[in-house]
Amino acid sequence: MSYVRRFDHIGITVADLDVVSDFFVSLGLEVEGRTSVEGEFIDTVCGIPGSRTDIVMLRSPDGFRLELARFLHPDPLPGTPDAMANVLGLRNVSFEVTDLPAAVAAAATRGYHLVGGIGEYENMWRMAYVRGPEGIIVSLAERIS
Fold it and tell me: How many other CB atoms sit within 10 Å of the CB of residue 66?
């Protein structure tokens, strides 16, 4: 028996909501909403008493949702923004794009560069990792065939 009904979203905790959300908007996501959350509900769910969080929800053209959260209280704890793909934990968010070189170039104009290079898999996919704001690895893939 499966308890999962559907995939809802991925959440990423960030230090600068504006910079990170602008990056994802530049890739083609749209801001679905912005809110602040505090009180008993968030304290219970996160297990952090007295927490306050600002949230931006983004949506891709096909309905994928990405939640960006910034803790106002308590102060956010630093992560490892230079971690490579083999470090345990969530390491990348992946999007299929229509023009991989153009998407990589657009990210580069904002100061975000490839982790490695653009690879090709069995004449079916081109893919690259871009290290975005706050060290978030964004996997961009383009179908070749």
Answer: 20
